[in-house]
Amino acid sequence: MIKHIVCFKLLDNGEDKKQETKSVLLSMQGNVPTLRGIEVGTDFLNSARSFDVILQVLLDDRQALDDYQADEYHCSVVKKYMHAHAEKSVAIDYEVE
Question: In order of start, what are the domains of the chain with their CATH numbers?
Fold first, then answer.
């Protein structure tokens, strides 16, 4: 299994925008067939080093990760939204043992 984690710093980190972003990310469930699990959380500390939203996705293998990255819904809806609303992001992909 592969875990794909992305932390986003939003341009507008108000609570409404964080919840909207969470909804957009969670909309991948049922729309992106390679997902085996998805979890989205929002930060409540709002410290200088905090990121605003975290996405955790579970996928079968590296091929499923590649397929996820190229998925039509992921690209046309989620990535499009995130590129418009995120200031920056950091990511990690690793194998779950």
Answer: 2-95 (3.30.70.100)
User: Environment class of residue 53 by beta-carbon count within 10 Å: exposed (0-12), middle (13-18) or buried (19+)?
Assistant: buried
Contacts of 74 (CB under 8 A, 6+ apart): 28, 32, 68
27 vs 30, 35, 45, 46, 73, CA distance in Å? 7, 11, 25, 25, 9
Q: Mean pLDDT, the chain, as a whole number?
A: 97
Q: What is the mean pLDDT of residues 23-51?
A: 96
Give the pLDDT band of residue 51 (cuts 50, 70, 90): very high
Residue 97: the pLDDT is 83
Residue identified by tokens 């990255």 is: 69
Q: What is the dihedral of CA 40, 44, 46, 52, to 10 degrees?
A: 10
Give the bridge partners for 90, in sequence order.
Answer: 7
